[in-house]
Design goal:
Required for the formation of a threonylcarbamoyl group on adenosine at position 37 (t(6)A37) in tRNAs that read codons beginning with adenine. The chain is α/β, with parallel strands linked by helices. It has helices spanning about 10-20, 40-50, 65-70, 80-90, 120-130, 150-155, 195-200, 295-310, 325-335, and strands at about 5, 25, 35-40, 60-65, 95-100, 110-115, 135, 165, 175-180, 185-190, 205, 235, 250-255, 275-280, 280-290, 315-320. It has two domains: about 5-205, DHBP synthase; about 235-335. The protein is about 25% helix and about 20% strand.
Length: about 350
């Protein structure tokens, strides 16, 4: 039987059986594909860490079907959590709260839990049909590119028991993570939901003062120095036209966006299609994404997957603007290049 199945009644039934047997299932969300496991099962959680080769200190986000289910997982539920949930759930916002005493084994050695309600029909049907809170990091090997299609999942995790194929993810980048255990809500991971939208509800939002060292407990995933990385070496550069290519491993590729500094070549007619070109006498593959930060983010991982599939050894990335709207994209590219 195929491991990649449509999310129809039979596919969801098979997924529920696997989850209730303390194993794992990959499923789509609006952000990226997740590798889901029963958040109450130590055996299932261990399988997530094993398949992903994920460090034990890196916690998991728990996905639930309702605000009531989220509250049951927490020891404290501040008023601002109600306001954020009412505005943004279901959606790409993860809240970090004090963890309920009965919930153990879903992440690093701390007393918090990261929780959200995904805005994807398949994810919600799976949550409702299983009746389980699902701990679900991205369905890929640790540190590698997050998957936005079922095909990405299978290539990265060939041993996953079942993948519900819900098509490409619409946001294409992980959720924004906001810590509500601090005096002022603190951004732990920039993501699909903008800071501007969050401030409309919370007012001030604090940013983390320093990076969290690998090996140290942390309240959220996405805080490791290296993450979201393709097989190719990623180099961020202020101007892809002027980058010194003499010492770069070939073949090389360029990842840039419409209207930015571009080498002298014929642009593809459609952003994100990629094209083989000649620059400085050497063939390069070029990916031109949208100049809109949300649209760029939606195709970023897919573009990195395409470049890996093309067999490039180096990816020169045009640095995006240093503005708040590009914060999530800059975060992903910086970690991919670490």
């Amino acid at each position: 039987m195929s491991r990649v199945v449509p999310p129809d009644a039979d596919g969801v039934r098979r997924a529920v059986e696997i989850l209730r047997a303390d194993s794992v299932v990959a499923f789509p969300t609006e952000t990226v594909y997740g590798l889901g496991a029963n958040a109450f099962s130590r055996q299932a959680i261990s399988e997530v860490y094993r398949l992903k080769n994920r460090p034990s200190w890196n916690p998991l986000i728990v996905h639930v079907a309702s605000v009531e289910a989220a509250r049951e997982l927490t020891a404290e539920w501040p008023a601002v959590a109600d306001k954020l949930a009412a505005r943004f759930w279901p959606g790409p916002l993860t809240l970090v709260l004090r963890r309920a005493a009965h919930l153990a084994g879903v992440g690093a050695d701390n007393d918090t839990i990261a929780v959200r309600i995904p805005a994807h029909e398949v994810a919600l049907r799976l949550l409702e049909a299983s009746g389980l809170p699902l701990a679900a990091p991205s369905a890929n090997r640790s540190e590698s590119i997050s998957p936005t299609t079922a095909g990405h999942v299978v290539r990265s995790l060939p041993d996953v028991p079942l993948v519900l194929d819900g098509g490409p993810c619409s946001w294409g980048i992980e959720s924004t993570v906001l810590d509500l255990t601090t005096e002022v809500p603190t951004l732990l991971r920039p993501g699909a939901l903008s800071l501007r939208a969050l401030r409309d509800v919370t007012g001030a939002i604090a940013l983390r003062d320093a990076e969290t060292a690998d090996g140290a407990a942390r309240p959220s995933p996405g805080m490791s120095r290296r993450h979201y990385a393709p097989r190719a070496k990623v180099i961020l550069t202020p101007d892809v036209r002027e980058a010194d290519r003499s010492r770069l491993a070939a073949p090389a590729a360029i990842l840039t966006y419409e209207g930015s500094a571009l080498p002298s070549y014929r642009q593809p007619t459609e952003p994100g299609t990629g094209t083989a070109v000649i620059t400085s006498g050497q063939p390069e593959v070029v990916e031109v994404l949208s100049a809109d930060p949300a649209e760029y983010a939606a195709d970023l991982y897919a573009a990195l997957h395409r470049l890996d599939d093309a067999g490039v050894a180096t990816i020169l990335v045009q640095e995006p603007p240093r503005t708040e709207d590009w914060l999530a994209v800059r975060d992903r590219l910086t970690r991919a290049a670490a």
